[in-house]
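Lab notebook, bench 4. We co-purified these components, and the gel suggests they stay together. Before we commit to crystallization screens, I want a quick structural picture of the whole thing.
Request: model the full complex, all chains together.
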Amino acid sequence: MKRTLAALVLLSVSPTVRVSAQDRIAETQTVLSQLVETYGVSEAEGPVREAVKRLLPPWAKSETDSAGNLWVRVGQGDPVVVVIAHLDEIGFRVTAIRDDGALELQPRGGFFASLYEAKPALVHTERGPVPGVFVPRDTGFSRHTPPPLRVDVGTTSRQATEALGIKPGHTVTMPKRFVRLAGTRATGRSFDDRVGDAALLLALRHLDRAAVKHQVIFIWSTREEIGLEGAQGAAAILGTTPRRVHAVDTFVSADSPLELANFAVAPLGQGAAARALDQSSITPPAYVDSLAAVAKARGVKLQVGTTMGGNDGSAFTRYGVVDVALGWPLRYAHSPAELVDLGDVASLADLVQAVAESW
Amino acid sequence: MRSTSADRRSLKDSLPVVGGQALRVTALAGALLTAYPPIHLSAQTVDQLALRLSAMTAVTGLEQAMADSLLALVPGSARDRAGNVTLTLGGGNAGGGGPKRLVACPLDEVGYVVGNLTDDGYLTLRRVGTRAAYPLFDQQLEGQPVTVFGAGGSVPGVVAVKSTHLTRGRSAGSDPVFTADNAYVDVGATSRDEVRALGIALLAPVALTKRPHRYGDRLLAAPAAGRRAACAALVAAARAKPRVKGTVVVAFTVQSLYATNAGLGTVQALRGPFDETKQAALATRYTDTAVETVSLKDAEELERELVKWMEGR
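Here is the predicted assembly.
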């Protein structure tokens, strides 16, 4: 532990210090675990944004735009490059309080609601989290399509629930923890996209600012899971100014005993992954080649592939900005059991740093 | 989901004894079965005991670690040949005045054991336990954190689930209910040898990772919370030093959820016959789910009732 802390102190004053692979994993875990254990459903990203601000290197000056996106600018001049990862996580929003005190919910983002059924719940209020449970269904026993989920906070009337400080609009999640698994693997919920957030932070901590020859804008965005809304706001502000955008988000991997291996097979432990083709954007092949060259020159492990899902970078493409989406292989995406290899996260951070410094 | 009463099967169903169960969970594993701090034997309230016991795992037939904790919690108790934890209050087996009575609490739960290890380091499961009143009992594993109780201690893992993104545009097929046969446990290993190096072998118990969850007005949600809170009430009653009428045998029984209910059968065969039997049980909500809910007020009331019953009042 002391060794890790010492490494982190050194990094904060001397960005170019090189650390061992073991310390790199420890540093990655230190940053990522804090982000994963912070709650922030779409439209309620405030706690995550504050966590990112706390983890920035001391020299970084941040600003928050009207959409709630957090910006840090590094370097000056053209071409302007944007690197963007999203703050929000999937979850629920309270839509109504029933006469029996239970909460009606609206999903925020796309996921199997059955994974929340019959699990502990947290309602995030101004007074702090209120515990409850996601009510198990008593009819319609099928796989992934339960009847609309409700939360029981242990009350029997609307008034009693309101007395706990709960209102429509509050967000609901289940408790979560960052847990290390065998080797360099780890599990938790909301790795999508706290890994992206962590990669930006780690890249900034290690960045050689003297090597940055143009402006690079790091953005932590809001409301990605409900339609890239924060990124759309940032893209509108920047217009045609940026040359490239690097969305840093999950490469949903088929490296699993349950998935078809037709595509998206980015094995865990093999490094960062370029999302060359997903549901929202296609990176021009020449840019994929350039990315691969940057990675090779810097000795960063990179996989190139195609997966599903959209990314924040696609909000910029309408302005003529090229989206070169980056990611890392994630198993069991949008579940409480998301699983990563911390070595891949470190590779992703190295790739972001390399892109900022040398592309 | 409607409220139901906890298991109230008759104690008069005396069944054959199954003895000599292999002890596959070490004391070390037992110590690691929960993330909660060690129990201090003084001043344990029913709430604290219920929380503690609910955080533990006792897959039916593999309850040794839970039994170890109960032995520490209940002074004078002993383990019998089936693995039950029993305590005699009052006149003892030799007799003396008054009736001979039994109060029992089953300590086991439906759970899983490792059934196989795959070449690429996943564990597959076999369910253990005959009762699963909730039709989606196994489905509660899908995409959730689990704990594997290996020879060297507890090992965290998760049960694999398809990524929702990769299902888009593809037929979901019949989307049948998830069963234990669909469960692949991922502990982060990449080979069978790596799994073995973690101390995991066939028959290692596996359960949803337990984090008892309090909500509302002294409600407790956890797998098997009703049984654990009832056993907590019985522990508290036994520790209250009641002035027992006659002889009372207190039994925390094993294997209540397997084919022959061998634990209770053993108590009856070795310690009976009894003039009266009583089962410590509590009503639960969301029964047999991962958020089975019990009222800790009810548990406290049960403790008082058990003391009165032991004293013949």
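The first helix of chain B runs from residue 27 to 31. Worth comparing against the SEC data before the next meeting. Chain B touches chain A through 54 residues (CB under 8 Å).
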